[in-house]
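tool=predict chain=A
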Amino acid sequence: MRAIATQLSGRRGESLVFHDIGFTLARGEALVITGPNGAGKSTLLRVLAGLLAAETGSFRLKDDDGADLAVADHTHYLGHRNAMKRELRVSENLAFWQSFQAGDNGGGLTVEAAIEAVELKGVGHLPFGYLSAGQQRRIALARLLVSARPLWLLDEPTAALDKRSDQLFADLVRGHLAGGGMAIAATHQPLGLDNVQRLELDGAHRSLEAGLEAFA
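tool=predict ok
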């Protein structure tokens, strides 16, 4: 499987926040996106996830035979928000995501095993809103484990995590890559990953009109 971005540009409001972005990832590879606040890191991830339309260019997933795959069916997106209902128990939240995102990929850990994998064994019966901010983020990471999807799109994944949890996150990503997965992470912080591709956005915003002239 490969993930291929070709001449991507994206905008926020009336400004192009990035342009002419291209990269290719293969199984077992990761890309770290860096840049100043407002450079377009989150916007780029949302474009890759299909949540925002690209201004120009394309992003595709291809299987080992070169056939196109549906990005939405093969991708986990973890944004700034944890996408959990505060009133539901931790186990109920994860069971929902397990069912909703299982698709045709199969695999994934059980809810209990995913909670244990993020070192929070015993909290499954608690309402999600009872957890600390760091614990909530770790349960959001557990969402990546309850259904198997090859590409992880991660926006500031270590937000609210302490040093020990940072290491836990790095170990989870290494395990995902070792199993043939791929990861794209936007972050200000070191993620503790080796041998990754890096993409730095410069934050050179331009008006939409001026930006489009560059592609004429």
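Residues 151 and 193 are 16 Å apart (CA to CA). Residues 163-178 form the longest helix (16 residues).
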